[in-house]
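Fig. S4 source data, part A: sequence.
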Amino acid sequence: MPGATLSENHAASATPALILSARALSDKAAGIEVRQADAEGAVRDKFVEFIGVEKFYGAFRAVRDLNLQVGRGEFLTFLGPSGSGKTTTLNMLAGFERPSRGAIMLDGKPVERLPPYERNIGMVFQNYALFPHMSVEENVAFPLSVRKIARAEIAPRVRRALEMVRLNQFADRKPGQLSGGQQQRVALARALVFEPTLVLMDEPLGALDKKLREHMQLELKQIHEMLGVTIIYVTHDQSEALTMSDRVAIFDGGAIVQVGPPDLLYKEPATAFVASFIGENNALDGVVERVSGAECRVALQGGLTATALAVGELAPGNQVQIAIRPERISMAAASLPGENRFQGVVEGRVYLGDHQRLLVRLPNQQELTVKVGAEGAPGNGQAIELCWLAADSRAFPIKAPASGKQSH
């Protein structure tokens, strides 16, 4: 297994976290762990690869033309709305579904025709799938028992796995006697105890409350950093993806529309869909008036104009949607730079502790959300001026449907 593992060869007297951390650091020094991709999305030391993968259910194409590489030791998240193809893709990798076309490679070997039990993959589900009649210790030991590991080896490996997730004191309890977060950690220990080459997680935190979910996100990330195991994670929660991932693959309509590190997806979305799905976003529809270098000037509704970075090949007359993040918009002052300046009226505000969200209506009746400090925000009905840099906004081409109405 790449990276640190729960190997039975570890000395029983040593602290598991220290052993695993040492193994992970050793692997990093040897160049095993690869977290970065080049500009084309290819990774060094690729461990998982989808090549032209498609999945049909009758005439419906659930996954289309999927080409993706996952590096050894990487934490990659599949992110997208319901029905976008992310779980189907995960199930094909796990062996629960067979691709209609294409190949799936695991460590250089094709696996699309292998049954799940021959792929050496750990799986963590949303409902944890623990056996209610078994103790925590028996649940974690189950993957070792079915693989016919020697009984003398099972106990120390289970103990180390439970220590890793800090549940060794609950070894004798049944799942029903544990909290949701504790059950999630049992499921994680069970997925790691047999030393899988890859761990797949299908929305494992979806059943937890917000505070516990955020805590478990950090715990999962720490365990990943400690072990160096390759993890592919499925979620529709954007904050979860941004918090935990080395890279995120965004799915829409059965295809990956963009893949990259979280900060790149947030700062440089490739499509209007990515801009709206990752983080909070303001969208302004308009028509390109002119293109000058990397920027374009856009005519908005009501006679307003705005300047933004041009994404893709744009020409005068193209319909576009400008995306601008709330935190990139400032309440204008003479000393603040910005090619885009608009008058507006505050229609509402929401206090969120460390900041406030203002809802500002422009003269053309379009509304913008603006992120401001927690104190000193203008009140409802107050006229203000907004500004932002062209470099902080992006103009994406949009297609008009057959009716001639703009698509939003």
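Fig. S4 source data, part B ends here. The domain at 280-397 is CATH 2.40.50.140 (OB fold (Dihydrolipoamide Acetyltransferase, E2P)).
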